Batch of 2 targets.
Target 1
Amino acid sequence: MSAQNSGNQYPDYPVPNPALDAQPFWDGTAVGKLLLKRCGDCGETHYYPRAICPHCFSSETEWYEATGRGTIYSFSVMRRAPVPYVIAYVALEEGVTMMTNIVDCDFDALAIDDEVEVVFHPIDGGFSLPLFTPVAA
Amino acid sequence: MARPCKAYIAGAYEHPTRHAVEQSVAQLHAEVARGALADAGLSKDDVDGYFCAGDAPGLGGLSMVEYMGLDVRYTDSTDTGGSAYVVHLGHAAEAIAAGKCSVALITLAGRPRMAARGPLPDYGNDTPDIAFETPFNQNIVNNYAMAAMRHRHEYGTTAEQLAWIKVAASHHAQHNEHAMRREVVTVEDVVNSPMIADPLHRLDCCVISDGGGALVVVSPEIAKSLGARHWDRCVKVLGQGEAVKHTDRGRIDLTYTGGVKSAAIAFAEANLTPADIDMVTIYDSFTITVLITLEDLGFCEKGQGGRFVSDGNLISGVGKLPFNTDGGGLCNNHPSNRGSMTKIIEATRQVRGEAHPNVQVPDCTFALAHGTGGLIATRLCSATAILGRNDA
Ligand SMILES: [Zn+2]
């Protein structure tokens, strides 16, 4: 059972309802930027982004733009769905791992450790989802 | 010399229904409470502590305390999802040891099969993680599937190895007249069943059922006062541990669960090791849940779970470590989508020597019951309880 998405073959994506301290993340994706949060005190990046650093509890957290590149930490092709899709964890170059989807590729050719890069997929409500696609070899 | 313990399981009851067409959820809670109290030789007026989780209707335990007409001086509605009842068992033992109550009632009941609930519970928009997971169409099965994919990648765990877990459960379920799936299946049956979310097939997933279960946990003084017939059936709560594991600020590691910590705490309290355990009951939401848990509990090395479960090693009378001898969630039932209550109940049956004769572990002295609540690839609470025979 080969599967891939292209054209309109994307699943319906639920619209996020972000908390106040995460709104800048979604403001970023809407204009094509993947923003992360780093702590001004301990220097560590965390994910998902929060107002208070979960490494040291400092409130001096700041947004910065990620490279948008990473590798697949794990994934699963969701076959039993109206439109199959790939849920994944992508390990970003910045050292944090985020949940996402892998899109625009042959799902059956995917493997853990594959290099991927972010693509922004507009959905309802003015939101844009940070999804990932394999980097062309 | 007999081992000390803070509390005993005096009563245990599993609802026979798997499809509650006519009963309300509150009624199911009351029915299992009645069953467990009768099993203990106690009445509802003896209950002075009540424990429940989010499956109980109403605010905490308040509505159910009222519905059942209880008069309690202690209540705990800690909700850690499917592991909550192993958590409650430990909390009840602690409360009893502290003198806060002496007869603790724990209930679980639900009718997800009738209600056809959505794919994931809704914890509300203030939950900080939701916006970073829900939009990507995370659901329960693909969340667990990601843990299975990572395990396969790191340790070479195969679909056939995972399938052995379902095969073992099915061997046990054939003897359980109440089990939803009593047919014995083979490794081939599992790997040839439809793929749901790679690498999990339909038969790697547990059933959805209505029903419930209840426990009555009592102080040593109450246990000894119940008369010989009940006292002999009282089961020692020898140790319990719980641990929350999560996405660790973005440093995600899907190869282990909170079971590493919860088991260490429980074994230390019980002063036992995995080698002492005669059988286990492990919340088997999916086959991968059992495999990773067995490693975390210390029954085999990390990464060796696939080898450990193969060739019938989990089948009672065949392998070294009988597991889920009632058929577990994979075959028997999964009331309210929360699997750890029925795990404690089957472990209790085994330690009492009251399991079905075809699956009863001979001379079962120590049993371990374990629950995983929440989602394995995001945030979860693992809870481990070690039970001992009355004379252990
Ligand atoms: Zn910090």
Target 2
Amino acid sequence: MKTVFQKPEALTNATMHYCPGCTHGVIHRLVAEAIDSLGIREQTIGVASVGCSVFAYDYFNCDMQQAAHGRAPAVATGIKRVLPEKMVFTYQGDGDLASIGMAEIVHAAARGENITVVFVNNAIYGMTSGQMAPTTLIGQKTATSPRGRSVSETGYPIKMCELLATLEGPSYLARVSSHDTRHIIQAGRAIKKAFEMQQQKKGFAMVEVLSTCSVNWGMTPIESMNWLAENMIPYYPLGVYKDITAQEGD
Amino acid sequence: MAKTLMKGNEALAEAAIRAGCKAFFGYPITPQNEIPAYMSYHLPLRGGVYLQAESEVSAINMVYGAAGTGTRVMTSSSSPGISLKQEGISYIAAGELPCVIVNVVRCGPGLGGIHPGQGDYFQAVKGGGHGDYRLIVLAPGNVQEMADLTTLAFDLADKWRNPVMILSDGILGQMMEPVEFADQQGVSKMEKPWATTGAVGREPNIINTLDIVPESLEKRNYELLAKYEKIKGEEIRWQEVGTEDADLILVAYGTSARVARSAMELARKEGLRVGLFRPISLFPFPEVQLGALAGPQREFLVVEMSAGQMLEDVRLAIEGRSPIHFINRLGGMVPTPEEVLAKVKAVLGREG
Ligand SMILES: Cc1ncc(C[n+]2csc(CCOP(=O)(O)OP(=O)(O)O)c2C)c(N)n1
Ligand code: SF4
Ligand SMILES: [Mg+2]
């Protein structure tokens, strides 16, 4: 029998706990495929963050550390500085990276810390059951913005790629989406590129993946894919925000 | 090796490098600045990594990451910065990651002042962060011990897979004394099969502190508690001077113990039978050893630069079998030997 599809080696056999219609699982697979295709599984140390992806340490088939909420870039820095030849990545949600961990991510980026960051932006705090995140869209209803997020009370959603692109440190910053096959394939390429940047010692690389939280958005899986495309992409435009290899005339 | 005249903070830093410390992550705060300055110059020249973090929060999490690879790693700070590190310290204790954390204590609360204090005793020995955990806490009493206890701290951290805190203070950090460094050869190399170094030809290693199943987390809690009990059995350190015939025993650690020692000598010159009991390990506290000295014929006088924190552990050790008195200064003030002597005399009914 011919094998046409199989689990990447960089994923374990554990059953993932994600809700139906959640794209965390797809993004895990893209990370694992990138690790497999570069042949770096045994060289890789991943850092799981606090959020729905906290159990990532059970899903990735490589050495893993689980970090405190928002601190994954600091933990990754500690690992990378003492093991500079190993591949180190963090996997963080938007509450983790853009709120409580803002200082850690900005300074890791500013230092050009040679790590890969996979940033899963679902515009909500998924794990704690749907509170407003720093990335929650204006007007978006959540458990703690029940009448919709208002600018006068809570300001504006933070665009992390654009913000980090003002720094000299990052080598690669891209925003991709996970809502349909075409975008998932593009997302996979961007994630692989972010690992390649680290392999080539180019410095800090981050891929922001727009993602769904069907359960806390109160939608079916299909509705949530459509909501992402129609509402998130206009505010969070997809694209490459920084690529120093492109500037090198590549 | 010949003795060198060094500041306490520098002696501590040099001892750390000699103990095989390969990474240092810190953030500036007085009165510990000599440690990162020394590390930033010497560590990169001697095969290590120095990095100034964006905050104490980040520094302790860098320590978590590096310790998780099995590397000997250290951070240092002073009181307000140590408060910020507490989240990370709790995770490090839960993850059983060996590392050394130095607190060159200043006076508080709040921003407090930059002068020496001992008001972080509870925070250091009773947990400090959230959850049931303990640090091994060592309290140097001179510059030589700033070095020696640092060497010991790295060994104990590896031996017990536990964070070790050096609880120093602004005076011990800044003062200069001759110091001699232990021979290099002794750097112990412990196998760390649990470390995350890349899963080459083995199952992945995971450094994790999350366990959402109460039955299994409770088991984990009891395992940690059992480890702390073993530490109590094996790692108690203290010093006694003139306690055998003493009518009054001074109990003090760190800078207060230096003052108490001078007061004791003054008292002895006047024919008063005064001794000194100096805990060196604050966790585990030399409870049994101190308790053994208690009895109706004897009184105790605790000297602290806090509102009376170690005092509570002394009471627990003495269990009401001797009267316990207390003298302290706060706010960065250091008690003088004369002040302590006057209190000794008052207690012994000689004066006042
Ligand atoms: C210090 C601290 N504060 C708060 C929490 C509670 N908490 C757990 S997950 C989370 C939010 C995670 O949201 P996000 O990073 O967006 O990840 P998602 O679940 O949406 O993937 C919060 C606030 C915590 N674990 N630690
Ligand atoms: S709560 Fe949201 S982010 Fe978390 S698993 Fe469910 S859908 Fe995914
Ligand atoms: Mg989220």
